[in-house]
């Protein structure tokens, strides 16, 4: 681990981690933004369209065809970043993980306090009666998954055109505002409103870990241009 980062972590008991797609790419989950070409080989529409609320409502069978093929990576295992963050939480140093990912890998690694800004593929609910279902309800059905009441089951993920869960957002803001150290990893900080969360940080230990540069690099106290799994090794 980077010596400066190690010292920052060692000296603090109030760390918050904010992560994006880059945290999961090393677990074999492709980054949405960099694989548009791959997505478009089979589908008539760009992924942003197919993962929109209106597409879900109007073209539910096509939505599920894409969703099952491209959004579910149930064999993926937590990588070093997930594991180390869970360890830091256990040690009482890390107070919360705020993630833009929907894969549940932070929980699989043992993290307890995970704020999922964009929801989770592991939770699904009936749009008619509200009954909750696990991910197997999606995997083991074909076509459009239906509830026992006859309603359509929808993944509890934030689709394009949908707003983020207000409670989760407010909790995330609170943790960031009160953090001594904010570590931001695996995100290019271009997706709003999530990227705007960093503006709530008031401290002077902002650490950015990302392979490519971000718009916030100038504001950071420490910038590490590397993959987050390698940094946390």
Automatic annotation (TrEMBL):
Enzyme Commission (EC) number: 2.3.1.286
UniProt entry keywords in alphabetical sequence: Cytoplasm, Metal-binding, NAD, Transferase, Zinc
Binding of NAD(+), residues: 21, 25, 32-33, 100, 102-103, 118, 187-188, 210, 228
Chief location category: cytoplasm
GO CC field: cytoplasm
Catalytic activity, as annotated: N(6)-acetyl-L-lysyl-[protein] + NAD(+) + H2O = 2''-O-acetyl-ADP-D-ribose + nicotinamide + L-lysyl-[protein]
Cofactor note: Binds 1 zinc ion per subunit.
Occurrences of domain Deacetylase sirtuin-type (ranges): 1-233
Localization of this protein: Cytoplasm
Cofactor: Zn(2+)
UniProt-annotated binding residues for Zn(2+): 126, 129, 147, 149
Similarity section: Belongs to the sirtuin family. Class U subfamily.
Function text: NAD-dependent protein deacetylase which modulates the activities of several enzymes which are inactive in their acetylated form.
Identification of the protein by name: NAD-dependent protein deacetylase
Native source species: Acidilutibacter cellobiosedens
Gene: cobB
């Amino acid at each position: 681990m980077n010596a400066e980062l190690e010292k920052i972590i060692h000296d603090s008991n109030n760390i918050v981690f904010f992560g994006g797609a880059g945290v999961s790419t090393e677990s074999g989950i492709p980054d949405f933004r960099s694989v548009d070409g791959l997505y478009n080989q089979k589908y008539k529409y760009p992924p942003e369209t197919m993962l929109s609320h209106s597409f879900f409502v109007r073209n539910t069978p096509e939505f599920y065809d894409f969703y099952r093929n491209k959004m579910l990576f149930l064999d993926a295992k937590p990588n070093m970043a997930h594991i180390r963050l869970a360890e830091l939480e256990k040690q009482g140093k890390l107070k919360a993980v705020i993630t833009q990912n929907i894969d549940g890998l932070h929980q699989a690694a043992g993290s307890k306090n995970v704020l999922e800004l964009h929801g989770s593929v592991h939770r699904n609910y009936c749009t008619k009666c509200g009954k909750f279902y696990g991910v197997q309800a999606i995997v083991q059905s074909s076509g459009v998954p239906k509830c026992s009441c006859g309603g359509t089951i929808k993944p509890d993920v934030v689709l394009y055109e949908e707003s983020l869960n207000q409670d989760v957002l407010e909790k995330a803001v609170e943790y960031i505002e009160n953090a001594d150290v904010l570590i931001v990893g695996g995100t290019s900080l271009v997706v709003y409103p999530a990227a705007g969360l960093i503006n709530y940080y008031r401290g002077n230990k902002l650490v950015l870990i990302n392979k490519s540069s971000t718009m916030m690099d100038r504001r950071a106290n420490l910038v590490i241009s590397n993959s987050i799994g390698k940094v946390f090794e």
